[in-house]
Amino acid sequence: MSKSTSETENTQGGLTRRTLLKTSAAGALAAGIGGTAVQTSGAATDEQSENTAYGNCWQCHKLCGMEVTLEENSEGTEVATEVHGIDGHPRGSAGEGTKGTLCPKGLSQVEKAYSPKRIKEPYVRKDGELTAVSWDEAFEYAADKLETFKEEHGAESLVEFHGWGTAGTFSTLFGNLYGCPNSVPHPTPTCFGSMAVTGTLMGLGGGNIRWVDYENTEYVLVWGRDVLETFAGQWEAKQLLKARERGATIVTIDPVYTETAKKSDKWLPIKPRTDGALALAIANVIIEEELYDAEFVENYTHGFDAYKEAVEGKTPEWAAEKTGLDAEVIREVALGFGRAAPNAGITSWTGLGQSADHQKGAQNLVALTGLVGNIDRPGGQRWFGSAGLSNPFEVGCEAELPNNAEGNQCYLTDPEAGYASLTKKPVQNNVPEMVDNGDVNGMVYYYRNPVTDGATQEWLGTDETDGALDKMDLVIGIDAFWSETTKKADVVFPESSQLEKPMLGSGGYGAYNTEAWVTGSKAAIDPQWNTKPGFDIIQGLGRAMGYDDYFVWDSKEEYINDQLSGLDLTLDDLEDEDTYVLTGEYGYEKWKKGGFAQGADTFWFDLDKKLTGAYEKLSEQAGAEIGTGPQWVPPGTIGDELSEEYPLEMLDARTVEFSHGGDQALTKPLEQLAESYDHEHADYRGNYLVMHTEDAAARDIEDGDMVTISSDHGEAELMAFVTEGIRPGAVSVEPYGFGRGSIQPDEDGANNMLLNSPDQIDPISGEIDRHIAISVTKSGGEN
Ligand SMILES: Nc1nc2c(c(=O)[nH]1)N[C@H]1C(S)=C(S)[C@@H](COP(=O)(O)OP(=O)(O)OC[C@H]3O[C@@H](n4cnc5c(=O)[nH]c(N)nc54)[C@H](O)[C@@H]3O)O[C@H]1N2
Ligand SMILES: Nc1nc2c(c(=O)[nH]1)N[C@H]1C(S)=C(S)[C@@H](COP(=O)(O)OP(=O)(O)OC[C@H]3O[C@@H](n4cnc5c(=O)[nH]c(N)nc54)[C@H](O)[C@@H]3O)O[C@H]1N2
Ligand code: SF4
Ligand SMILES: [Mo]
């Protein structure tokens, strides 16, 4: 193979999570010793030869460009045998002249394409049994059922879930055309709602707390995010490491000694859900030392007085008591960050985005960006520009697309209506209740498994009781694997995998910090078995439903060319350019021209003119005064409280081998996971409960024991991984969501959302709370 295979071989340097954690004393951990990030790569050859094709990986929807090696098999069919990254690719490289890589999930796309566990035919339910049928029959069957459903229950009784892939087109079919107002998009309320809604309301933008201008930064707070695990192989992980090499200080704030913590200058093993206290203390030092950007605060912010009041007295000593961190370390970090700003950034995502108590924690954290004025400035929070693809329905169709769902907007598009439980708009956790009270009677889903995401017990039911999935009149899914959800559906459309279909996407964040880009590719191999690309499925169903005027394309490639038309590009052009094209430059301080998020002319420390009703309601519910400004809200005020019966705080996280549950059926990632936790010799191939040595010893639990995790709502069983690399009192399920309700319902591992109850959501954003009070007991002998 070509030049850079050495990195592939050196992926883990012979070090597993366990050896790293075992060999590190707590002091050395906190000081941040080096470690080896789990970064895997294949390397692209410079020239595309006759037996190669291009692809774009969508396994975690980041679109890393792929070069696919093709070989003829004994039957004369071209099969994909290997995939590699593409040099200079906006996602899978660190910019021009740098190597393109793929993470283990990307590398397992060849296994996915040929996996026998995939759904191979369309299925419809006949006499109670899922039965394989032709595509035409499946489309007709689904269209008939949807028509009858509308007559009986109305389109507003359907709920539509979507994830990756051609998701926008799916929403257009069910929203604009069929008239279903209940679109539950993938991103916000399941992903990082507490942070996204707060960030949007404050003016930073929902996502901009995630992206640092790494190329120019001097100081980075990695705060409740594990960049080197969840963005391994991508530009961001590479830029973070480069920034450190350049001399920037990296501080990771996480209860777990993560891959990123291992590569940081400092690890702050914070007590979960106390981040709001740390953020206020950092502000306290910065204000006290006059390190803030007075000019920005004066001219571009609103509510600074309320912020100053909230920060008053919140010294590092005060925060040390709440967070379990050292006051001197807090002071040092505050001074380091404050002095480096605006050349300093924060990257935060799900650690503070997935809990109800963090709603205020997120506000305190986002407030720091307004304080130091690092928003869209070199070295600070980056606002990326996007290429701006055209709407294919506007380009391709003569008929104007109606909006038959109008009048019933999804709550997240209307922040004033943000109080999810008041508006009765569906979020993951309240769909089962809406099914019970008759508001929702059917569901369609695409590249998504709402059942693993939260309130899993209510979705699935028990041996004795039916769950929401059983009670609905109609369930239609487009999926690749036989998840428990798919098995209960009435219609199952099998989607072709990444290598079998044309793809297009655009940045967004990427290796080109000041240039927008698009990336796309044709299908590298034919659809396997009797599957179809998502676009063909949606268009086929749309036509069967009578929407021929809107589904007018001869192929997905033609549809993509319509998307590219405003940029004067075609899919052929992208293939000629190794899948990607840079489309235009953008600069810094874009808020000076376009305003802050939602067009506001200032950044908001205090949300006193927004969502006031929702905060009043929230105070009532929490039994505590929760205002509109930054504030310290202790854990347990809105979310779970630890108790004698449930004394441990359960968190969960991702690992580099899996994209949520979407590739759990593949052998290679399962093997890699077991190896990485040093349990490859056990039969077990599930996820792990990471627990501290002291917490394990107190329960007579040893590394490799099977343990039962229980909350007052449910229980599950998985293998313990005992380590010093987590804060005592916290336990983390890594990665989340195996077993019941997943795509491998009968295999090893725990779906920790069986322990989550429907009311465990952030009432402002509807985000599912993933900080759950639990007990852990040993359930079996050594495995
Ligand atoms: N406990 C817990 N739950 C979480 C999270 C957490 O941290 N903890 N994180 C949340 C976050 S941040 C997110 S973004 C959501 C994501 O949640 P989802 O959007 O549901 O993500 P996936 O599990 O990747 O995808 C779901 C389904 O996609 C199917 N699939 C796989 N490949 C294909 C394909 O090629 N085509 C089609 N059509 N389907 C395919 C799989 O069968 C799988 O069931 O999960 C959330 N759920
Ligand atoms: N390999 C892989 N990569 C992915 C995905 C995937 O499924 N697999 N999914 C993609 C998606 S959709 C998303 S949203 C991103 C998410 O990307 P990340 O946010 O990086 O996801 P996690 O690895 O869950 O990291 C969250 C971190 O927060 C920590 N944490 C938990 N509770 C607290 C707390 O109270 N305080 C603090 N300070 N930290 C806390 C956890 O220990 C964990 O290390 O990843 C993306 N990338
Ligand atoms: S799964 Fe890996 S290779 Fe695929 S898009 Fe995501 S980061 Fe890129
Ligand atoms: Mo997410």
TrEMBL record:
GO terms for molecular function: iron-sulfur cluster binding; metal ion binding; molybdopterin cofactor binding; oxidoreductase activity. Keywords: Iron, Iron-sulfur, Metal-binding, Molybdenum, Oxidoreductase, Signal. It holds the Pfam family Molydop_binding. The keyword DNA-binding does not apply. Residues 50-115 form the 4Fe-4S Mo/W bis-MGD-type domain. It comes from the Archaea. Its cofactor is Mo-bis(molybdopterin guanine dinucleotide). The keyword Cell inner membrane does not apply. InterPro entries: Asp_de-COase-like_dom_sf, MoPterin_dinucl-bd_dom, Mopterin_OxRdtase, Mopterin_OxRdtase_4Fe-4S_dom, Mopterin_OxRdtase_prok_CS, Prok_Mopterin_Oxidored, TAT_signal. CDD domains: MopB_CT (cd02775). Belongs to the prokaryotic molybdopterin-containing oxidoreductase family. This is Molybdopterin oxidoreductase. It comes from Halodesulfurarchaeum formicicum. The lineage of its organism: Archaea, Methanobacteriati, Methanobacteriota, Stenosarchaea group, Halobacteria.
